[in-house]
Specification:
96 residues; mainly beta; UDP N-Acetylglucosamine Acyltransferase, domain 1; five-stranded parallel sheet; four-stranded parallel sheet; 27% strand; globular
């Protein structure tokens, strides 16, 4: 049965809840007391601060930075390209 995929290269803090069928990519760091809903995709090299809640079906792209005490709503899709249709990729920063 397929459940979650959590990279062996990810660093997961204490008291973190990751619900069904979620993906956590390489070199991602998740702080303490974070709650991640079902079907969330967290790509590589993402940093998530403590006490943050990410609701189900959210997409967090590579290089994103989410601060402490942040809330990402259901089915939210973040983008890491401030100039669509070009090759200048930078991460997203969200502060709580």
């Amino acid at each position: 049965m397929v459940t979650n995929f959590i990279s062996e290269k990810a660093k997961i803090g204490d008291n973190v809840s990751i619900w069904h069928f979620s993906y956590v990519g390489d070199d991602t760091e998740i702080g303490d007391n974070v709650k991640i809903g079902s079907l969330v995709h967290i790509d590589y090299d993402v940093k998530i601060g403590e006490n943050t809640k990410i609701e189900g079906q959210a997409y967090i792209p590579p290089l994103s930075r989410i601060g402490k005490n942040a809330f990402i709503g259901p089915a939210a899709v973040l983008t890491n390209d401030p100039y669509p249709m070009c090759n200048k990729m930078i991460g997203v920063t969200i502060e709580g």
